[in-house]
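Posted in: Structural Biology > Protein-Ligand Complexes

Title: Requesting predicted complex, iron/sulfur cluster in pocket

I'd be grateful if someone could produce the 3D structure tokens for the following input. Sequence and ligand are given below.
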Amino acid sequence: MRLRIWRSDPTTDEPGSFGEYEIDTFPDMVVLDAVLAIQRSLVPDLAVRWNCKAGRCGSCSAEVNGRPVLMCTTPLSLYENEEALTITPLRTFPLVKDIVTDPSRAYEAARRVPPFQPDPNGALGAAEVERQRELRKCIECFLCQDVCHVLRDQKLYRQFVGPRHLLHAASLELHPLDALDRRKPVQETLGLGYCNVTRCCTDVCPEGIRITDDAIIPLKERLADRSDPLRWVWDRLSPPRKRRALPVLPSDDPDE
Ligand code: SF4
Ligand code: SF4
Ligand code: FES
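-- Reply #1 --
Done. Output follows.
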């Protein structure tokens, strides 16, 4: 099989270019196997980041034929009808070398999400445990950040934290044991309004998290509540508990 891999070292003045390599394949080979075979036998200085080789650590993210994937869980057989496999680094992050990028920007964005604030009156039911489990499956591969056009094309890194961090904000905002009302920071600091719900982030998530439907849309609904004048009056007449806007399954009612 023929692979084209992006080679570039930003610490030199040399422009980047594709290296082209032929490799023998074996059944069930994944993209990462192919890259490591090339590194082992043809180009020992090829930079590639990986760790678990099991789809758990999120470190082997790259773009294969233009689509962001985890290289360790992507079978070569998916591309058997392609002329060549083209492997490039994630475009949304600064390049370190070859196909390795620096995700520091995502960690900086994570610090903009207001942290958990315990609510002594909160109650956590079975349905909420399940929702929290789903929202917390993220392995921080940042494929969703890579594909989001607000970051990838518009480069609004300061204005918009991106889908991974909106997911984190939603897991806290929807958490029954959290007391903080994040609607203002979600709008003003995290930039929720820049998301136009294209669902591209959900399409590439290797954990199958429904980022748009389960996190971003509920956050947008909470903001809509805030701009509704009747809701505003109701919020001020109600006891200072924040999280009764979402429907809860019967089994989740602490009074039952
Ligand atoms: S749904 Fe929103 S966050 Fe996800 S890729 Fe589209 S614009 Fe970005
Ligand atoms: S939400 Fe999904 S795509 Fe985004 S970083 Fe987490 S696991 Fe990766
Ligand atoms: S090496 Fe850990 S997810 Fe691919």
